[in-house]
Amino acid sequence: MASVKLKPGENQESLLRRFRKKVTNAGILSTVRRKRWHISKSELRRIEKKKAIRRARRRHRKAVARGNI
Questions:
Q1: What is the SS3 string spanning the chain?
Q2: I need a surface site. Which of 11, 25, 37, 39 has the fewest CB within 10 A?
Q3: pTM (two decimals)
Q4: What is the pLDDT of residue 2?
Q5: The domain containing residue 57 runs over which residues?
Q6: Is residue 45 domain-shared with residue 33, that is, in the same domain?
Q7: Per-residue pLDDT of the chain (69 residues; tens, 9 = 90+)
Q8: CB neighbour list of residue 19: distance below 8 Å, 6 or more residues apart
Q9: Chain-centre distance for alpha carbon 63
Q10: 22 with 2: CB under 8 angstroms?
Q11: Using CA atoms, how far apart are residues 55 and 47, in angstroms rounded to an integer?
């Protein structure tokens, strides 16, 4: 659970900004979104494989654009 305490002289906007940053860094929202619906292990593997292929294509395009390949 992410928690922040109000520092002396700190306004509400900066407190909220710190809280959001802490939640993002902890990965709480991504975990909640991932666990919102049940996804079978085979479906998870398929999704991860698709993501890996997209990453590889993106890296390859960037490498070609830079002239590394």
A1: CCCCCCCCCCCHHHHHHHHHHHHHHHCHHHHHHHCCCCCCHHHHHHHHHHHHHHHHHHHHHHHHHHCCC
A2: 37
A3: 0.51
A4: 83
A5: 39-69
A6: no
A7: 788 999 999 999 999 999 999 999 999 988 898 889 999 999 999 999 999 999 999 999 999 998 877
A8: 2, 4
A9: 24
A10: yes
A11: 12
Q: How far apart are CA 61 and CA 16, in angstroms?
A: 38
Q: Is the same domain home to 32 and 3?
A: yes
Same domain, residue pair 8 and 33 = yes
Tokens representing 56?
């590889």
Report whether 4 contacts 19 (CB < 8 A): yes
